[in-house]
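Folds abound. Consider this:
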Amino acid sequence: MSYQRDELARLRSLALAQWGVVGHVIPYVLADQTLYQSVRQSALDYFERNRIKWWASKYDARTKGPPARPTGHLTSSQVACVNHLEPARIDRKVAEQVVQTIEPGYHAVPTAPNSFVEYEWIGNSSYLGEKGARRRGANITSLDALMCGERDVRRILLAFEWKYRECYGLKSVATSRKGTDRVATYRPLLVRADCPIRVGKIEWLFFEPYYQLMRQTLLVWQMVEHGEFGASDWLHIHVVPELNVALRRSKATPDLAGWTMHDKWRSVLKDPDRYRLMTATELLAGVGGASNWNQWRTWLNTRYLT
């Protein structure tokens, strides 16, 4: 757990130096400053326009009414995802570089006018049979980010799950705090013959982080099956810091085969190569050179060690 401890200490030092704040949560009125300056407004506008919920905790002292802001938590993986991918959302060249790092030879395809990334994407319909209200970023399964690539006539969805300091203990989440039987919710898709997941007992999947990976896998599979963005294939990109060994070596479920999170999750996929474990540094390796985003890359290194 040394990464979790050391990174928190580093972020507390950053908060004190930059905002004069003791701790790792800056005041909510300043929380938008956790977003990189040159993409701050575009990200805020995107979330507001699409009614996407910013993650928040009890430590975020909310103000009434708009504009909504991200959490003041410097440890937020949602904010980390936006800080790393917002340039790709608004700049075709950066989007191309990210897509080609994942799948060489593919080109970035807009997911909306003048946009190459979607955040907190939940699909066009309730494919998973979840009961929650359909709002992006709240209540139901969502992809932290989504991009689309194309080569010739083949179009592929790139679904992102973004992690930062997260790690998990050995605890089943098969039943929600409200008593919902989650196994029953996802079983209809998990038992289908064409489901991309194959596992001895479905209950083995209901431990984090595999529960999240399972739901996102089902979602992107169903998105392709229903023709979203004209895609015929998909990849699941799991972005985890290299130093987050507690997560990367997660044995949070006793039954899946393998010694690491990567091996355990690949063991239940019918096509293991659909799952990619990467660092943010690896993901952005192609972005640079004479790019006008060099200051952003320097800032990411200071902010996230990326």
Summary: The mean pLDDT is 93.
